[in-house]
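Check the record.
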Amino acid sequence: MKPRIHPESRPVVFRDRAADVAFVTRSTAHSSKTIEWEDGSTYPVIDVEISSASHPFYTGTSRVLDTAGRVERFERRYGRTVSPRH
């Protein structure tokens, strides 16, 4: 590897808000927020919406989406318009 062209890798805490899980890993990501970890050290923290702790593929659980409710809500909001067929 060429010297001084790669970003610095350091320990960072990634916190999954959906599953209330956090883990430390090495990353080049930056964050202005910090958190004190279990080992007493302070690390930058990055909040993520989904990780392997909350994603259905990894957890083996599936979420039922209310597609009918979404369609009805869309039709109420924007009206039902049917395009004529030829």
